[in-house]
Amino acid sequence: MGFMHKKVFRAGLSLLLAFWVFFGSFCQPALALSDEQKLVAEVWRIVNRTYLDETFNHQNWASVRRKALEKPFQDHQAAYSAIQNMLKSLDDPFTRFLNPEQYRSLQVNTSGELTGVGLQIALNAETGKLEVVAPIAGSPAEKAGIRPRDRILKIEGISTEKLTLDEAATKMRGPIGSAVTLFIQRDTEEELEIKLVRDRIALNPVVAELRSSPEKTSIGYIRLTQFNANASMELAHAISSLEKKGADAYILDLRNNPGGLLQAGIEIARLWLESGTIVYTVNRQGIQGSFEAFGSAITRDPLVVLVNQGTASASEILAGALQDNGRAVLIGETTFGKGLIQSLFELSDGSGLAVTIAKYETPNHRDINKQGIKPDKVIPSEPITREQIGTQADVQYQAALELLAKNSVVAGAA
To answer: N or C: the chain end with fewer CB closer than 10 Å?
Structure first.
């Protein structure tokens, strides 16, 4: 009897061991990922969860992950290269990886100061070329005559073709008084070599003054150069001050304003609008979020907005909101056409990731990206110096004065 028990026990044990071997072959523990592989996987997950294009540029995004992780990485730099290759497959210059130094640089407070040449730059989404969005007012770049849409071919003799946006920006920054040489191409002209001396770039976003038109109308002229953290407060103060001084109408100059903080653009729109939609946001599910105007505008006086090819991003949102709501007349040139929303993510090793998560649409559902905002009255720009902006030499400004003189600008809000 004891012998039979032993045989049954041994048979049961053999069966159990066989089952364990069979079942275990399907339940192998996952191989532990290295820190570098975890970083690559972290980036993949963020893009998988948030990226605007749910087709991921018509590719199998899961397959991209498998390929990226199939081999171990020697160091963090190898992981960074793998991440950049992974993101490159999306064919989106605005979705990009930032190493820890680049990420810290991007986090510099937008209301602070920079030391560099004073250029706002972007990668053209169609050509991939590095372009000037706008020079910052009073900067070495503006004084040297660099213009919106100028293509930056080389920085210190190094081709920009293989540089990321952040690498190009880093090469142009540097200590005050140091020099940097840029090679620029403008339209079909020959390559220009421009030597710039880096300086401290003060980001004072608002210039405002009361002016008299030939018809003795008091015009509040406001030039907004960027949408930083203080822009809304500074502009509200400027409008209130001009109202007290007796302004009858306004010219808001958004030319060469490359944008900045989305929230600043929304708050500034609310200074002019009493009601109505300011902007829609559309993600990959097609879900539309919207930002609305509410409360009382600071002024209902007639408003003309000046725009050009250097008017971009948050500037286009503001211009589109004022145009679609019938609050302002736009004069100048079709704007830059940057209507994508990026979100910034901090990664586990201190690096960063910018991901395109949505796009903008104007209140009338116009897609800004690559389209821009077409002004109500097209007036081509002419080369002028900084000192000539808002003077008789400024044809777009003069067109705004003429329009206000004809009393053809509607003052009311939607």
So the answer is: N
**Token representation of residue 163:** 């540089």
Structure tokens belonging to residue 231: 């822009």
Answer for the pair 136, 225: CB distance below 8 angstroms, yes or no.
yes
140-154 burial code (b ≥16 CB/10 A, e <16) = bbbbbebbbebbbbb
Helix (H) or strand (E) holding 218: strand 218-224
Distances (CA, A) of 257 to 123, 136, 215: 17, 8, 29
Q: Is the distance from CB of 354 to CB of 343 less than 8 angstroms?
A: yes
DSSP designation for 260: B
Within 8 A by CB and 6+ apart from 14, the residues are none
194-242: per-residue pLDDT in tens? 999 999 876 667 889 999 877 778 999 999 988 888 889 999 999 999 9
Alpha-carbon distance of 44 to 371, in angstroms, equals: 30
314 near 225, Cβ under 8 Å? Answer: no
CA torsion sign, 167 to 168 to 173 to 178? positive
| Chain mean position to CA 80 | 23
CA distance 306 to 234: 19
- Enumerate the active-site residues: 313, 324, 338
SS (H, E, C) 135-153: ECCCCHHHHCCCCCCCEEE
What are the structure tokens assigned to 91, written together? 């064919």
For the four alpha carbons of 136, 322, 361 and 50, in that order, the dihedral sign comes to: positive
Tens of pLDDT, residues 110-134:
444 567 898 888 888 778 889 998 8
CB atoms within 10 A of CB 264: 25
Q: Could you tell me the two tokens for 349?
A: 């090793």
Token pair, residue 251, equals 């010219």
Distance of CA 32 to the CA centre of its chain: 37
